[in-house]
Design a protein that fits this description.
This protein has helices at 12-16, 20-51, 80-84, 90-100, 170-175, 181-190, 404-419, and strands at 67-73, 114-120, 123-130, 135-142, 145-152, 156-165, 206-216, 219-233, 236-243, 251-253, 273-276, 279-283, 290-293, 296-299, 305-307, 312-320, 324-330, 335-345, 354-355, 360-364, 374-381, 384-386, 430-437. The chain is α+β, with helices and mostly antiparallel strands. Strands 11, 14, 15, 16, 17, 18, 19, 20, 21 and 22 form a 10-stranded antiparallel β-sheet that branches. The chain has a 6-stranded antiparallel β-sheet with strand order 10-9-8-7-6-23, with helices on both faces. Strands 1-2-3-4-5 form a 5-stranded antiparallel β-sheet, covered by helices on one side. A hairpin with a 2-residue loop joins strand 7 and strand 8 (219-233).
């Protein structure tokens, strides 16, 4: 017997409304769907944290390098061994001396010259020695090897105008302004062929110059070149302009291109006084007799350098009871000069040796028949004595014609710098800066 079972029909309202249990399950499912992304993010973060690279250990700190510079001046008697013995053995210093010999022999270290020892953690790194005002010897160590070189000293240069009026001497006029006596000496050397700064100077004479002042590491370091200068002596103005004529060495010329350099300097000393002039009759203070004095006596402090007045060859050097220590120089086929009563001779001066104009040949003394320190200076022409103050020496070669136009341009620029300011009427030198350069 077949029975057909049919579920009872539900009303439309009952089919649309879920049961309370179903609604709870639906809410739980929805909440789960909302919380899944949160748990996923937490899991990823935790995984990344667990898989991060381990921390790399830091290297140990680099030891500090301590630098030190010892500055000094070579003292009399100092040697390379004395200066470097704290860092090298005698054998190492000898080896270093052999390495330096082609560049600058360490045996030529001179008293009074500056040096610097550069250290790194108390160990030698570098030695700097001032050969002169222009060059340095550099010895440096890199690992176990040395390098040796000679280099120019680095200066900052400032060009200044210096001017003044003479009251007693050029030396006093320059130094009274705070400038160094070196500047006075340099000016005297420029005009030494035309002006005897012992015989010719008068009160009221004046000078002006364009001079390079040097600075080293911000500190004054002497003078460089004198680019131009004027000196008015007894109403006559002498001019000097520094110029390099082609391949010839730079030298001084007047405004017309004529060389200031002549065969003889006007005097063998830069600054002194005349104690006795050239005369045919003078009462000798020691022999107490009247006799000729065919010479000029220059009174000066003992040790004052004596210069050869011209190029030449030493034909006599020695000592006599009258002349004391003396030197005689032949300059050419006509002229000879003698220098008497010297305290001593300059280094490497010997008979037969050539000397240059302006070269120091000895030092003022009082040897022989002398009442005090002075130089007795004599000049001979063709064997006969002549008054050195009256000798007119020929000038050296003028500027080449091919370079005259260039010289004129440079000279005009220097004259402008000398004269573009009002004249200063004062008994003291004054100065003002003109240019600055490296």
């Amino acid at each position: 017997m077949d029975f057909d079972f049919k579920p009872p029909k539900q009303s439309m309202a009952s089919r649309r409304t879920p049961s309370p249990r179903l609604r709870v399950w639906l809410l739980l499912v929805l909440l789960a769907l909302l919380l899944v992304p949160f748990f996923l993010r937490q899991t990823v973060t935790s995984t990344e944290a667990n898989t991060a690279a381990p921390e790399i250990p830091q290297p140990p700190p680099i030891p500090e390098i301590r630098k030190e510079v010892i500055k000094g001046t070579v003292a009399r008697g100092d040697t390379a061994t004395a200066l470097l013995s704290d860092f090298f053995s005698a054998a190492e210093i000898h080896e270093l001396g052999q390495l330096c010999k082609p560049v600058f022999p360490l045996s030529r270290l001179s008293a009074g010259q500056s040096y610097r020892l550069c250290l790194s953690n108390d160990a030698f790194e570098r030695f700097e020695y001032d050969i002169d005002q222009d060059e340095q010897l550099i010895i440096a160590r890199d690992a176990e090897s040395f390098s040796v070189e000679k280099i120019p000293i680095a200066y900052t240069t400032e060009t200044a105008r210096v001017r003044g009026t003479i009251e007693s001497s050029l030396f006093e006029a320059v130094t009274s302004t705070g400038e160094s006596e070196v500047l006075a000496m340099n000016l005297a050397d420029i005009f030494a062929w035309d002006i005897d700064f012992i015989l010719d100077i008068r009160q009221g004479d004046s000078f002006q110059a364009l001079v390079e002042k040097r600075y080293r590491e911000g500190q004054p370091a002497g003078y460089g070149r004198i680019l131009a200068a004027e000196f008015t002596n007894q109403g006559t103005t002498f001019q000097a302009f520094l110029y390099q004529d082609g391949d010839r060495r730079a030298d001084y010329y007047d405004s017309e291109g004529q060389s200031l350099r002549k065969a003889f300097l006007k005097a063998p000393l830069s600054f002194s006084r005349i104690s006795s002039g050239f005369t045919t009759r003078r009462f000798h203070p020691i022999t107490k007799t009247w006799k000729a004095h065919p010479a000029i006596d220059y009174a000066a402090p003992t040790g004052t350098p004596i210069k050869s007045v011209g190029d030449g060859v030493i034909i006599k050097k020695g000592y006599t009871s009258g002349n004391g220590n003396y030197i005689k120089i032949r300059h050419n086929s006509s002229y000879e000069t003698m220098y008497l009563h010297m305290k001593g001779f300059a280094k490497n001066i010997s008979q037969g040796k050539r000397v240059a104009q302006g070269q120091t040949i000895g030092y003022v003394g009082s040897t022989g028949l002398a009442t005090g320190p002075h130089l007795c200076f004599r000049m001979f022409k063709n064997g006969s004595p002549v008054n050195p103050a009256r000798v007119k020496a020929a000038a050296a070669q003028p500027i080449d014609k091919a370079n005259r136009a260039d010289f004129k341009i440079q000279t005009e620029a220097l004259i402008t710098q000398l004269t573009d300011q009002p004249n200063i009427q004062t008994a003291s030198a004054e100065q003002e800066d003109v240019t600055t350069s490296q």
